[in-house]
Amino acid sequence: MANHKDEPIDGPVGRKLWLRADRVLPGGGIYFSRSADMAGRGVLPGFIASAEGCRVTDADGRSYIDFLCANGPNILGYNHPEVEAAVNEQAQTLTSASLFPPTLVEVVERLVERSPGMAWGVVSKNGSEVVSLAGRVARQHTQRRLLLAFTSAYHGNDPELASSPHPGVLADLTGDVLRIPWNDGQAVEDTFREHGEQIAAVLLNPLDQNPRQKTRNANADFVAAIESGRAHYGSLLAFDDVRHGFRLHPYGSHHLLGIEPDLTTYGKALGNGHAISALLGTEALRRSARRILFTSTYMFEAPPMCAAMKTLEIYDRENVFNRISDAGTRLRTGILAAADAAGHTISYTGPDTMPTLLFEDDAEGTRQQRFAREAAELGAIFHPALNWNLSAAHGDAEIDEAIAIAAEAFKRTPGA
Ligand SMILES: Cc1ncc(COP(=O)(O)O)c(C=O)c1O
User: How far is the CA of 29 from the centre of ligand 1 (A)?
Assistant: First the structure.
């Protein structure tokens, strides 16, 4: 998509980096959410050189209030002093070893303690790995073949979980993951009736939240149909809280749906920007989990585990969930008023801590991009396609500054 401004937002350093990147990176879908294809080339700065609190600085030295939080991770804000101190202290004594670091036990204990019903955990680096592992544990435990997932739901980069036909993924490979529409309780019932004996697990996100789309909560009939299928056929519930974990509910987003998963996964916000993810499971699944081979060289790096320990400590101590909820509500209120004042009809969708702004009558996303481009020029990053993320570093002053930027960006966006 064109960015509808002649000049890209990137300054001379960023532009040179793009030229070099185009020579050595394949581009396109590779690195999907960060790729220029997702935001529109030149709409947002292509390269972030440093970050602090809720501000990021691009390769040309321009600073922006950021509402991406690295696509989720930085829930306490970038470069949080206590988290970084814990990471650095650990890095001075041990990064990786050939046996377990003690902090592995501590971090899994902490996660299990915070998650009633869960008895064991496995730590890895990215969300994709633990979601994929959840599917394996469920299949091993039930000795069944199928996973039931929902149309468009993203569950990471495991080829089997690709949500639509993807180049390089064999159709046969995705055939054992049934995909049915979100919030269609009837489809859930029908699918269980037809395949229930073979469904190892339902793979469920707390929300249906996809780029450039309105967020949809799970409706009560849909959740009831999943619960009833699960009870009747003995299928498991594998909850994917990688993206929403810690931003919808302090102790797991499943609380919003009133369900108790058999397996749950965390990633993104768990390490405030350090690479750590986790799968937690119930006691009943422990023996099955034990049988699975799951390892890789850097899974045992100790500093990200210390980052997670410290992040959880601060998150609980500083009541971060309430803080980001309040900041998100302030942002929503201000953005809606600013859009209205400029004569734009928008929908502001999703939870306040993870909202998506959509312009009405903007099928091509043209206004969306123009707004994001204008806001970036004025010093705020509001992604034009992906949901935004709030952090504890977004104080009232920063939110008000961002609202003022949005107000001006709305005025500069044609089409009101
Ligand atoms: C719901 C969900 N599950 C899994 C993943 C994969 O996590 P990661 O990108 O850390 O591999 C993501 C990433 O965006 C996600 O949104």
Answer: 15
Ligand 1 center to residue 357 CA distance, Å? 21
Question: Tokens at residue 86, please?
Answer: 């814990």
pLDDT the model gives residue 26: 86
pLDDT tens digits, residue range 38-77? 788 889 999 999 999 999 999 999 999 999 999 999 999 9
Residue whose Cα lies nearest atom 7 of ligand 1: it is 127
Query: 186: phi > 0 → left, psi -120 to 50 → alpha, else beta; which?
Result: alpha
Identify each DSSP E strand in 152-311 by its residue range: 177-180, 199-204, 207-208, 216-217, 236-240, 263-266, 277-281
Domains by residue range for the chain, with CATH: 12-79+319-412 (3.90.1150.10), 81-317 (3.40.640.10)
Cβ of 128 below 6 Å from ligand 1: yes
Distance (Å, whole) CA 43 – CA 37: 10
Whether the full predicted model's pTM is greater than 0.90, yes or no, is: yes
Give the CA diameter of the chain.
62
Q: Facing residues of 37 across strands?
A: none
